[in-house]
Design goal:
- It is a single chain.
- By secondary structure, this protein is an alpha+beta fold.
- It is built from two helices and three strands.
- The protein has one domain.
- Helix content is about 20%, strand content about 20%.
- A three-stranded antiparallel sheet has the order 1-2-3, with no helix packed on it.
- A hairpin with a 2-residue loop joins β2 and β3.
- The longest helix has 9 residues.
- The radius of gyration is 13 Å and the shape is elongated.
Amino acid sequence: MPIPPSFPSITCIEGGSYIAFLIFSTVDHYDVVRHFAMPGDINNDGIVDYMDIGTVCRLFGKTPQDPTWNPNCDIDNDNFIDYKDIGIPCRLFGKTDP
């Protein structure tokens, strides 16, 4: 996942089958924290399921300027929630965090 230079603090935690990125930044005066327990697990409940896919689908087409923006749904970190972001949880549907 490419990290824009505007993110001043990144912590990466790896273990087993997961990787977590804790990214601290300021975007329009809001602190942003992104935590990925597992790719596609948007709500961090340990399973990639319909809830994760639905969350990304509801935000399709959103950008950081939108008030409903959720940075966890921008999985590929391109500041636009699109079909690529929906495809990741779809491909990983049913995967669980051991």
